[in-house]
Amino acid sequence: MAPYQFIERPTPFNTKGGSTLPIFAVTPAHIETGTIDPIALDWAKKAGYKAESGSLLLIPTAAGHLGGALFGLGANPSEQPYITGKLARSLPAGDWHVETAPLTANRLSLGFGLGSYRFDRYRSDKQAAATLMIPRDADGADIKRQLAGVFLARDLINTPTNDMGPEQLEAAFRGLAEHYKAEMSVIIGDDLLKENFPLVHTVGRASADAPRLLELRWGKKGHRKVTLVGKGVCFDTGGLDIKPASSMLLMKKDMGGAANVMGLALMIMDAKLKVELRVIIPVVENAISANAFRPGDIYKSRKGLTVQIDNTDAEGRLILADALAYADEESPDLLIDMATLTGAARVALGPDLPPFFTDDENLAHDLTEASLETDDPLWRLPLYMGYDKDIRAKIADITNAPAGGMGGAITAALFLKRFVSNAKSWAHFDIYGWAPTERAHSPGGGEAQAIRALYHHIRHG
Question: Which CDD domains match (predicted)?
Fold first, then answer.
């Protein structure tokens, strides 16, 4: 069974064997020492080709037809492990194979696949693309699985809110669950109050598209309990503390945590990992209406803690609070939450390096190793309890928006920590979910972050 696709698209890989054109992936040293195909070397020298990182030189046949391509890796290929992603966007349409390359087969193929991503759902000028034959010594099934997870996250984030509101996100979640025969349940609207999810209801009640809590269960009881929680704010106006236009422009991506845990869940289920998987996604639109929640309001959470609303634009932690408390009630072995939560995380580490928080030293070590192994960047920030005093409120247990704003990523993580007490291990990921610029393995736009590293950890942990 092929992995789930939210948007069906052609595979970036071919299986045409000897009828494909060759690619010679080379470094400047290969050109200087002449250790490549003699015809390709002769053409490279005549063209003055230097094999700079990401450069492409097409090679003609004696009859003047397209005969192959040279692809530059630069002097240090290890610095850009997924550089072959550029090939997917620069090669002419057609079927190709890599003839020689100083790269591992898995890394080479995954890089090409990641770089092949296009979000052309709304374009009428769809263009044919190059395809690559996966080398025989690569794990083709796992490469396709990881691509499917990454593409699902990218597709969900890139889809504008008029087509990715709470109702449509539920439909995508249902499609994923049905594809892998998982159990799914949904709690919608005022039923959230009956089932004790008051903060999810509070944040989402002003939208015409009702708030909801999505849940998926998959796997065999008795296996390691892995629970994923993702922030699903389909659009964030900021609420009554409304954002300026420049800050609202990208708010369709505020469901990036949900998109990423769905991509990770896809990988886990497709690989049939021996885990008891549970996925919980609180879904809302933070809109403005007469019944919108207000600054100064105080609400009781599912866990019983009261929360003072000091900024309606700090809504993500509110819906996560109820979802994490719910997840924690079953004492999972591993509890992961992912959220596009704070601008402070981006100020600290930029858009490409998501921080994670945990007080489990072994988990932190393993996640760091997984990050290095998969070249899926992560950086641990501290759950510094010295800042815990900042989330205390004057007339409620805690505030959703500490005064001053300093250390905002840490205080947000400490807020969430209040709602996790039974899980054996917990980690919070504050992701951006967006690539502001094109990179070798990404054309820019919606992005999967940390889920390849997490998949590697769960698979081998």
Answer: Peptidase_M17 (cd00433)
Query: Which tokens in the block code for residue 347?
Result: 């100020």
- Predicted local distance difference test score (pLDDT) of residue 17: 66
Whole-model pTM: value is 0.97
Q: What is the pLDDT of residues 26-43, one digit of tens each?
A: 999 999 998 888 888 899
161/147 Cα distance (integer angstroms): 24
Q: Which of 243, 300, 380, 459 is catalytic?
A: 243
* Both structure tokens of 301: 């959470």
The alpha helices in 217-375, defined as continuous H runs, are 245-248, 256-270, 316-328, 343-349, 361-374
Q: How large is the greatest C-alpha to C-alpha distance in the chain, in angstroms?
A: 82
pLDDT at 18: 67
The verdict on whether 123 is a catalytic residue reads no
Render pLDDT for 136-166 as a digit per residue (tens, 0 to 9).
Answer: 999 999 999 999 999 999 999 999 999 999 9
**Residue 336 backbone phi and psi in degrees, to 5:** -120, 130
Q: Which of 268, 217, 222, 326 is nearest to 454 (CA)?
A: 268
DSSP E strand stretches across 355-457:
355-357, 379-380, 398-399, 426-430, 434-435, 445-446
Residue listed under structure tokens 């996790």: 420
Give CA separation, 94 vs 41, 88, 143, in Å: 23, 11, 21
Residue 461 pLDDT class (50, 70, 90 cuts) = confident
pLDDT tens digit string along 300-319?
999 999 999 999 999 999 99
Identify the three-state secondary structure at position 336: strand
Of residues 450, 328, 461, the one with CA closest to residue 379 = 450
118, 317, 346, 439: the catalytic one is 317
Please confirm, yes or no, whether 243 is among the known catalytic residues.
yes
Q: Where are the alpha helices (DSSP H) in 48-190?
A: 85-90, 105-115, 140-158, 166-179
Q: How far is CA 92 from CA 52, 63, 68, 365, 421, in A?
A: 19, 18, 10, 43, 55
**Per-residue tokens: 161:** 């809110």
Report the sign of the C-alpha dihedral through residues 312, 315, 319, 324, in that order: negative
Contacts of 82 by beta carbon, 8 Å cutoff, 6+ apart:
107, 110, 111, 114, 115, 375, 440, 441
